[in-house]
């Protein structure tokens, strides 16, 4: 029992309890403007009808982790340009219309095509596509 009392006493003396770092676990009301724990407890009681709010089910401390390696760029960083190269033919369509014979896919595209159009669920290279 002494252990329980010691833990509760340390929790009550935690400086984060009085800091505006708390938010509701049931809605996003405080995410843009974190509040003191007591304000969030009252919110959970009045808005969500929970008489005895518990952590972290009903409210929690929202600690932001700042990495020492993170920095803010002083210039615009363009997202990577991903080039999708389509070089794969469907061999199931090879006997079809000339327009189907010329259609090119990437690997995931030909696999989706084979499953949808030809009902081939486990396509094999050089048998179903090349």
> What is the strand arrangement across the widest sheet?
1-2
Describe the largest sheet: 2 strands, antiparallel
Q: How many beta-strand elements?
A: 2
Structural class: mainly alpha
Helix content, binned percent: 25-40%
Quickly count the helices.
4
Shape: elongated
From the alpha carbons, calculate the radius of gyration and give it in angstroms: 29 Å
Outline the structure in words.
With 130 residues, the chain is mainly α. It folds into two domains: 10-61, no CATH class; 82-130, no CATH class. The chain has four helices and two strands, in the order αβαβαα. Strands 1-2 form a two-stranded antiparallel ribbon. It is elongated, with a radius of gyration of 29 Å.
